[in-house]
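OP here, attaching both records as promised.
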Amino acid sequence: MEKSEVRTIGARKIETLLTALLIRANHVVSADQLVAEMWEGHVPRRSTASLHVNVSQLRKTVRRPGQDSPIVTRAAGYSLTLGDDELDLAEFQQLMRQAWTSAHARRHADAAAACERALGLWRGESDACFFGGPIANGFWAWFDESRLECLELMVESQLMLGRHRELVGLLFRLVAEHPLRESFHRQLMLALYRSERQADALRVYQVARDTLRRELGLEPCRALHEVHRAILAADVQLELLSAV
């Protein structure tokens, strides 16, 4: 398939089949796993025959002119063969490795840039992607967590670059979307304090503490508590405080 060519899949079963094969690209996915993925616990009597039909239809969709189908039949099931540069996931993981390496080396501009490129590969809302069986749901849970870790590292790197005022709006949105993720509360408090908004930073702590107590019966983590204490003391070390 040419890079400029876009093909869409309208059938839900074929879309689910492709999703499972992409997640396990270059590995064999058994017929039983694919059946469980496509019918989500409601397996029809002729599921094996239906699987073969769906695989055949998918092959027609992804076949490249003049090339063999990337979907290969194996003894135990099927495998989708892809090169390293054909899947955004591989690029996302490579960029995240680069970001962490740069962050640990205190090359914060490089770390932030790598995170931004990684996040730019993501299209759509993660909530819309949870469909299918164990393969798809397990992958989306892992990827959503990886995406949040990428956001945390990007924000942390940008804070180290003094971009606190630019981050306030983003962090308020992240706190609203992920109220139990204490790292976003901590980063928002730090961004607000460095933006000369000490009272707002303290209010963020109160909201975070109340939410954690109400939802989980827990007190804020040590990192969040220490930022709160440092703000109250107007600790000059806040200008250097970072989780990286």
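Record two, same layout:
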Amino acid sequence: MPASDEVDRIVDAWARERPDLDVTPLQVLSRVDRLARHLDRARRTAFTASGLEPWEFDVLAALRRAGSPYQLSPKALLQQTLVSSGTMTNRIDRLVERQLVERRTDPHDGRGVLVVMTALGREQVDAAITVLVADEAEMLAGLSRADQERLSALLRKLSLDFDD
């Protein structure tokens, strides 16, 4: 049997103190929560090393994944980053100030605006994702490729209801 971790100790304590409750969900979701905290720290470190805030990475990464010419409407950015329109407007303003993106008139709709990543934005997001992927691979190094694929499949199955 694998070694005990902090979640095992927490679950055992709750089971002892509240035997009337089924605390088995804590076995999974407390571990997910703790891993999310570690991942958040690793991501912040990767982004900081590349000169980005986490929210900046989110916007730039959405633009980068869009492919050349690395542009999206503010509405598309809202959908990908799950923030309010006011928050997105503020984020775009700040990215424009840092010269990581530009606002351009949509050539297909003169009333519309496109957010376009600059060369500097692309350079910074590429640096960040390079560090991030390496750091995340290191975090998963204790699992075989098959275990990683199984875990990914289970997490996908769990998350599908939340993505709708």
